[in-house]
Fold Ig-like domain-containing protein.
Amino acid sequence: MNKIQSIEEGSVTISCPYDSQFVNKLKFLCRGNRPSTCRQQAVITSSNTQNGRFRLSDDRKSRIFTVTISSLTLKDSGSYLSLSFVISAEGLIEVFGYEGRGVNVSCHYDQGYENSKKYFCMNDCGSSDILITTKQKNKGKYSITDDKNNRIVTVTISDLQSHDAGKYWCGVTRWGKDTYSEVKLHQCRHEGSVTISCPYDSQSINKLKFLCRGNRPSTCRQQAVITSSNTQNGRFRLSDDRKSRIFTVTISSLTLKDSGSYLCGVQRNSGFDVFSAVELKVKGERSFCLC
């Protein structure tokens, strides 16, 4: 956690470094320390770079965006979070499916686009990221239908596997710029253990990795339930695949009390620990979902 001090009536600039994969993504700053609500409560974003006393500047060459707060008051003291997401998101659709079964993803679109092509994609929705379109109907494990009366396009994914969990987009072809609805697919299983995967960048290969409960980055490392320096702690076991740059934490003998928010963390020498959020929902005996 980076600590910044300034004087009342002065100004302060908060520097927020980011990885190369986020160069073209939306950046934003929010007050508090809850990643799950940060975007909705942002005080400023890179799509609106001036908001009262807040001003945002994005240096894409150096991969650092900065937020300047002017005319500081005592009320400005506190915690802030900086995060990045795809710019074109128009709300989040959350879907839960069980491994080995099928799941339906339904996305609503605006009036006037009944005859436009719709598609389902991942990553940056480039040509190689498109999984299926309404011109194809069926493609591998994906099928798609378009209810033009209710303006809902539905994608069915069959035989869900662990690697299917993650973020997707429902796209609608429009003149000038397509529109997208963000979809998050959560995978559920019937087991007594769960493995949480935490990807990290190449700069963090030799850094300390850790997992903590809750959603407070400022105290996560101190309250970690397990770290890469102590890879076994009761029901928690940590494994670090440096080649793939993913560390995993396995929780065995799951109980309902294991439900809740977790943060994957990587210690950085710069003072900024890096986090990704995970939500675990234990739905009953030997059944859970990862969010």
